[in-house]
Amino acid sequence: MTSIETLEPRHVWKHFDRIRQVPRPSRHEERIREHILAWARERGFETRVDTTGNTVVVVPATKGREKAPLLVLQAHMDMVCEKNADVSFDFMKDAIQLERDGDWLTARGTTLGADNGLGLASSLAVADDPDVPHGPLEILVTVDEETGLTGAAGLDPALVRGRRLINLDTEELGAIYIGCSGGGNSTVSIPVKAAAAPAGTQFVEVAITGLRGGHSGMEIHLHRGNAVCALARVLRAASAAAPFALARIQGGNAHNAIPREARAMCALKEADVAAFARAAETEGQSIAAELAAADPEMATAVKPIKDTAPAMDAASTRRVLNTLLLIPHGVEEMSVAVPGLVETSSNLAAVVSRGAAVEALVSVRSPIRSALDALRARLYAVAELAGGSVSENEPYPGWNPDLGSEMLRVTRSVHERVLGTSPELKAVHAGLECGVIGEKLPGIDMVSIGPWIEAPHSPAERVNVPSVSTYWKLLVAVVDEVSR
Questions:
Q1: Strand, coil or helix: what is 66?
Q2: Which residues does the annotation mark as catalytic?
Q3: In this predicted model, what pLDDT tens digit does every residue of 27-55 receive, in sequence order?
Q4: How far is the CA of 249 from the CAs of 87, 231, 320, 357, 445, in angstroms?
Q5: What distance in Å separates the CA atoms of residue 151 and residue 444, rounded to the nearest whole number?
Q6: How confident is the model at residue 262 (pLDDT cuts 50, 70, 90)?
Q7: Where are the beta strands (DSSP E) in 327-417?
Q8: Half-sphere exposure of 474 toward its Cβ, with a 13 Å CA cutoff?
Q9: Higher pLDDT, 432 or 316
Q10: 65, 104, 173, 402: which could join 452 in a potential S-S bond, CB 3.0 to 4.6 Å?
Q11: Are strands 104-107 and 98-101 parallel, antiparallel or unpaired?
């Protein structure tokens, strides 16, 4: 396994190396929180934890900076847990295995956790590095960011006293993020009825694999394939060649990840298997050709399996496939105000058979509440046509850019002076905790920065190692500047 102990900045990589060894799936952050608290206790830092599990570490100012205004460095504890199907890995027990490829650091068949492990590592490094001058700090580390910003949503406002904040959870060096999308999750429940498989039935598995996936906010505009959508198309085409009954279906597992793989178990007459397979594979090849420029590795496979489970009746099979084909996925609207920015989108994130229903998880994003509500209303319409239902969470708010922000002025000025380039000012079509924190703490002044990270939320996640040094140089210079 790759060693990162000798990389610079040393304090950042030291902390990241420790963090990657601590299991930290969303909603299971107990061990990483204890790691942070133990680190704080060793240094005599005050800590505060709210009932949600969000944690603040209070770091005293360095000598001469005691009167500076309080600054908040903010990151989240959890990581998206995605792995390749052929990789044996338990995210509840195992340490991330690192691999180096030139200037890039990645993980062996799993997500790397640079999102947001490097943000967490750099916030701790600011406090640990004696060469970083700073005023009084609050290190705010939230839980459960990746499943819908629920940690930030449960933040006790009394936990945070600072009103200037640097969020460390973006993935583009050379940019300062000053806005983000709002969003919410909906689960469409499609009722199904079981029917016993007649004699002579053969079960087959249809699998869609090889897609790149990715972050459903950051990469929805790249037109990568969605394995659930592709599987629905393949099954619909196969049904015209050979009638079948759907037994089970599963694909995707995270609301903010574009599904990379999906599988269905189907029951049909043994004599129809060859025709079914030909039709499924032909449609799969057509979809692969459509996606070739953006997602060239899609594969469709059909194989017989041994199964005796009840399958759905014909009406249920049609209802599931039709509903999955109707659920919107992809970019709905582009922003007119910010050229190149996705404004509204939908991600058909997961599907799973669950008892007497098939459930489809859909993540909708938009900074405009009315547009978000309108797209979610379409899901109710689809569910009603299918005789199903929808459950949904309360959407998290967006973060409206403030071009008059003092934190933006300082960060922009430091970027130009220290890095020698003018930063791009950007908003992101993804949920940053800044939107929720801004609602919890009215008047807080925020910016968001980060190193160069690619393909977060997928096993292809990687971080550009030299970019971490550049990002660190910017971060410590901004911390220095705002504490003078």
A1: coil
A2: 78, 145
A3: 999 999 999 999 999 999 999 999 999 99
A4: 21, 9, 10, 11, 46
A5: 18
A6: very high
A7: 330-334, 342-354, 357-366, 389-392
A8: 29
A9: 316
A10: 173
A11: antiparallel
